[in-house]
Specification:
mainly alpha, Histone, subunit A, flat
Length: 103
């Protein structure tokens, strides 16, 4: 039975940018340990004769076709709540770096 340490919880909290009190860290360490140990019980289940599955409900995604719906709202009215704009476009922060994506 492996235990999650308070230091491991602190590291996870830092990565998730969560501010936790010492009491919350101790409590989470206990709870996470219990959850992981409960999940480890699956290691004892005999699955030799069980076929692998990736989807068990048989449902498929139902997608609709995109439709263009024209609007009569003037561009100025559409852009008035935009936090930042350039001409008739909403200006946003750069999301992708071209060097990282080979362009």
């Amino acid at each position: 039975m492996k235990k999650i340490s308070k230091q491991q919880v602190e590291e996870l909290a830092k990565l998730a940018r969560l501010g936790l009190t010492d009491k919350e860290k101790s409590s989470l360490a206990k709870e996470m340990t219990a959850i992981l140990n409960y999940a480890r019980m699956l290691d004892d289940v005999d699955t030799k004769n069980v076929r692998p599955t990736s989807q068990v409900t048989g449902l498929n995604n139902v997608l609709r076709k995109d439709k263009f719906i024209p609007t009569n709202i003037p561009i100025e009215d559409r852009l008035k709540n935009a936090p930042s704009r350039e001409k008739t476009f909403i200006k946003v922060k750069k999301v992708l770096d071209e060097e990282q994506h080979g362009q």
